[in-house]
Design brief:
There is one protein chain. Strands 3-4-5-11-10-9-6-8-7 form a nine-stranded mixed beta sheet. The chain has a five-stranded mixed beta sheet with strand order 13-12-14-15-16, sandwiched between helices. A two-stranded antiparallel sheet has the order 1-2. The longest helix is centred in the first third of the chain and has 20 residues, at 74-93. Helix 10 packs antiparallel against helix 11. The model is unreliable at 1-46 and 319-323 (pLDDT under 50). It has 17 helices and 16 strands. It is α+β, with helices and mostly antiparallel strands. Helix 14 (396-408) links the parallel strand 12 (386-389) and strand 13. The protein has helices at residues 23-32, 55-60, 74-93, 109-116, 161-177, 189-198, 206-213, 221-230, 236-246, 252-259, 268-287, 341-345, 361-375, 396-408, 423-433, 443-448, 469-478, and strands at 14-16, 19-21, 97-98, 122-131, 145-154, 182-188, 249-250, 293-296, 309-317, 327-337, 354-359, 386-389, 413-414, 437-440, 450-455, 461-465.
């Protein structure tokens, strides 16, 4: 994949030829461009028809973000932060380190990073904005600018232990986010290779057949078979043989069934894959998550990239009277094992086995936003713990001193930017924004050396010695 990052570093940006240019060198870029040059080296800058700031410019100017991008409101950002915090907490709980690599690379950054630094063992995560080169399709959730959220384990370890942990991580994240029912599908490239081999599919048609099989999650078997025969060149008999396998899904029972299959059991790759799949399900059972895992032979994502186990998590729509089975709302995570990629970058071809998962964070954001809208949940867009208020006039200096003390003590505090706001307005602001506490100071409190601490929800008020205010705020918020 090729990702691009805007080159401008702060300040107003000018768009030219698809690039973002800083004003300091925009003129040089214009001068270098053939369409802006005239005879004898004189540079002529082409002017827009309507200048921004004029009446005509104001009328014709359309305010919108660049194509393939979007803005996010404070409410949307609060939801996104909730998702980020959940994911990062999970990654850290599993002992992952964080790395960062440049966004504008021509090859796979993590594999390049391992090969270049001769790293043979690491558990890492990386969350960053990336950029598509191809045309965006925002109606399908394909933005030009979006977040990529990756977790990977690199190194030589006993079989399937890191793979099982990646699936456990996906299970933890989706469970904590409470998006509803979900399912994690797993398969193995070696098993699918073996299936295609015993069905008589030539190697030259492997990738094209895989791409067709992968459509089974959205299309009927009849449609998939027609594409195999009509577009991919398979015989109807070969397609039917494939259909006997790729429509199967289950758990340990299915693995044991395939292990006894007279044809598949004779294929070396299939036997290896089934052996590892059985081991994987044993570990998933120990983790207590096997009920959310489905061994699905139709899963064929990215098989030119992965070398072993592959997986994909989908959120399911709830059942209703018109459906007998839950329907997928789309993939929210995917990954697998890729043992050969690092060796492609190493001068000596040294291999570093890797397994990882990419969280479809933009899809998770969309689902979370829909859930919040449907539930009418009130989202706090700040983390303010206490509002400093006063019923007195001309007490701005008192409020400024008190709020400064709270800030210096690490308390998240606000005040209204008015000299003499009404106390009722200050209390109402707390209720509107979800601030849990109000620190009220007036003439009597100032004289007594106390601050009246008000619990917004219960309207309970208690006088607290000023020097113990920060401690009391922390105690109440932690309880």
């Amino acid at each position: 994949m090729n990702w691009l990052r805007p080159l401008a570093a702060g300040g107003c940006r000018v768009t030219f030829g698809g690039q973002h240019l800083t004003p300091s060198w925009a003129r040089r870029a214009f001068a270098a461009h053939p369409q802006n040059q005239v005879a004898e080296g004189v540079v002529k800058l082409q002017q827009p028809k309507a200048q921004l700031g004029t009446d005509e410019g104001k009328k014709n100017f359309i305010l919108k973000p660049p194509k393939g991008t979007r803005d996010y409101s404070p409410k949307q950002m609060a939801i996104r932060e909730r998702v980020f915090n959940t994911i990062i907490s999970c990654f850290k709980r599993h002992g992952a380190e964080v790395i960062d690599t440049p966004v504008f690379e021509l090859k796979v950054p993590f594999a390049r990073y391992l090969a270049m630094n001769k790293i043979t063992n690491i558990k890492r995560y990386h969350i960053a904005k990336v950029y598509r080169r191809d045309n965006p399709a925002m109606t399908r959730g394909r933005y030009r600018e979006f977040y990529q959220c990756d977790f990977d384990i690199a190194g030589h370890f006993d079989p399937m232990i890191p793979d099982a942990e990646c699936l456990k991580i996906v299970h933890e994240i989706l469970s904590v986010l409470q998006l509803g029912d979900f399912l994690i599908k797993v398969n193995d490239r070696r098993i699918l290779n073996g299936v295609f081999a015993v069905c008589g599919i030539p190697d030259s048609l492997f990738h094209s057949t895989c791409s067709t099989v992968d459509k089974l999650n959205k299309a009927t078997w009849e449609d998939v078979k027609n594409e195999m025969v009509g577009e991919k060149g398979l015989s109807p008999e070969a397609a039917d043989r494939i259909g006997e396998y790729v429509r199967l899904h289950g758990g340990l029972g299915l693995i044991e069934q395939l292990d006894q299959d007279p044809k598949l059991s004779q294929n070396k790759l299939a036997r290896e894959g089934l052996g590892d799949m059985k081991l994987l399900f044993e570990y998933l059972t120990l983790f207590g998550i096997a009920d959310k895992i489905s061994f699905d032979l139709s899963l064929a994502r990215g098989l030119d990239y992965y070398t072993g186990v592959i997986y994909e998590a989908v959120v399911l729509q709830p059942l209703n009277a018109h459906r007998e089975e839950p329907v997928s709302m789309g993939s929210v995570a995917g990954g697998g094992r890729y043992d050969k990629l690092v060796g492609m970058f190493d001068p000596k071809g040294r291999k570093v086995p890797c397994v990882g998962v990419s969280i479809g964070i933009e899809r998770l954001f969309s689902i979370m936003e829909q859930e919040v809208e449907a539930s009418k949940e009130k989202i706090r867009t700040t983390e303010t713990q206490v509002l400093v208020a006063t019923p007195q006039k001309n007490f701005l200096d008192v409020k400024l001193k008190l709020i400064s003390e709270l800030w210096d003590s690490g308390i998240k505090a606000e005040m209204l930017y008015k000299k003499n706001p009404k106390l009722l307005n200050q209390l109402q602001y707390c209720e509107d924004t979800g601030i849990p506490l109000t620190a009220i100071i007036g003439e009597q409190e100032l004289k007594d050396g106390v601050v009246k601490l008000r619990v917004v929800a219960s309207r309970e008020e208690v006088n607290i010695p000023r020097e113990k205010l920060a401690e009391e705020i922390r105690r109440r918020l932690e309880s």
